[in-house]
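re: ur question from earlier - yeah i can do the single chain one, its not a big deal. heres the input i used so u can compare w yours
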Amino acid sequence: MKKILGIFIVILLCTQGCTYFKKTVKNQSAILKHIQLSCSNLKEDNNLYFSSELPYPNINPVQPKLLKYITQEISTIQAYRQLHEVLQSYVCQSSMPYILKATRCAFEYPLLIEYLASDLTQITDTVVPFEMACAYTQKACHELISYDQSLIIQKTLYDDISKYNSIESIILLLVEILKQSGQQNHLAFKAVEHDELDNLKHESPQLLDFFIQNTYLKRTDAEKFLLAAKKLNFSFLFKSYMELLQVISPDVLELIQQIFQICTSEYINTQEWSGNFFYANQTDIGLILIGDVGTNHYKTQAALIIDFGGDDMYSFPEKLQSNELLEMMPNVIIDFSGNDTYQSNEFGGLAGGLFHPELLLDLNGNDHYESIRVGCGSGVFGVGMLIDMAGNDVYLSQEIGQGSGLFGYGLLLDVSGNDSYKGAKFIQGFGGPSGIGQLIDVQGDDTYEAGGKYSCSYGVPGMYEAQAQGVGWGFRKMAAGGIGTLIDVQGNDTYKAGNFSQGIGYFLGIGILRDDSGNDQYDGSRYCQGTSAHMACGVLMDFFGNDLYSGKIAANQGAAWDLSIAYLLDYQGNDQYQGTDLSLGSAAQNGFGVFVDSDGKDYYSVYPDQGLGVSGKYEYEGGRGAGNFAVFMDLGGKSDQYSVVDCQNNQQKQTDNMGIFIDE
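and the output i got, formated as tokens:
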């Protein structure tokens, strides 16, 4: 009887084992098919984000290698599938307002973040200010609204350029352009009640001050922002800005230059401006000033300022005290040459689109830009753009500056020169809720610094907050973050910042730092250099150069925390990495952290068991039915050095909690 029972048990186990094996193989095949489909057969509405190749033909993309290692074992496939489902479900089911399309796309295709980040930061090859401004503005349109082709400037307000042959006719054309832009901006706020908008304007300094001081907003304070933002029509907001861009179109700039040839200037000295001017007059859209090549001083906001040369001074009062804001008309500054100084005091001004569009174009000179809050190419319930075409420039901003967007769009574009960018917080490519912020520097050896003013929120002495250099930031549990990007194309650059910096996503935001070439140095604190936290995505991409990365305290260099995705991708060069806790391709609390160095003889220093493909805890909400995914990959060079003794060249290892270390 026992023998018969034993035979029966063996048969039963074999049958169940075969059934389990068949189910496992079938499950593996289905999962593998799902992953392959998610990486190849993309939906048409996502074609904006995923190109077929990276921008440099001699760069081997990381994604095929990453896909290979994830799909080579059933345990890895299953772990990825489980984590992917958790990541996707939390984002898709989130009731948070203002989640952008790219954020949902990132969580739908986490293995394709390399292509997503590349496309979101793709650089146009034009050097015409008008074309560059149009290209980047249209790209922001794709995110903040359902893209409307009518936003592209298909016809201009001028049909026969030859008829504008006097200063009066040219002024009338410029007035008409600004007037058309202002009308579109009014339509953007049409659904916002007058009293509600008026209160929001007057209370914005206090609300933003609380946000800046505390990094978060109280729900009672945030509701005023959120209610107004829901009523803001971004289609008209961008239409207003696209209309305004006609002022810097090649034809109009050529017309403006004729003023210098056909007119004579006179010296004027008032409380609001002084110097030699071709034109100074109040119009139905506001003050218009046109200065000659001498040294002029502009002491007040104006609807339009054009200056043909000289070392000029622009010093503006607080924007919320000006009459122009009440009318919500655009402001434009065009300066053709000279070593100029631009200063705005307290709140708004200096290419700070606060409830309206602002544009500043400086074509030549070593310039100095200084703003307190909402300036230097930033938008809050508006659009602000600063374009500097040439010169070794200095940019100083305290908060919300240097390419920042909060319920709006901000762009700082510097085309050439060795430039210096400094500030305290929410700067240098910051995207808040319903915001796109971009800082783009095309050429030069540049220095970026952020922090030093606001003490570390974790209470660490000597450390500071920054939220800068490519950060997408949301109001946690209230509003999803936007997209913040810092893009540097050429030069040996230095990046220094405090907490939450250098390609960081926070609460449903996307932050990207992309450096295309040069021997660069990255110095950050906690959460820096391709990191993320709380349902977000952070990426740092460096394509060429021998680079130095240094992170402090914790969470840096491809570290993901709490339902987030983080990538650090370095494609070429002999690089050095100094990490700390949760660093160099690490993840915790259901995170997907990836670090890849594709080529070079590299050096890695990190605390033992705290980095290099380390998967940490995942006890939040009971684990959520999935673990982490932490990937460290060094794919080139046979002479890498590791401070951790159990990590070596030509080694592969994996932990049960999906921590993967690969050195090829």
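The chain has twelve helices and 43 strands. not sure if urs matches, ping me
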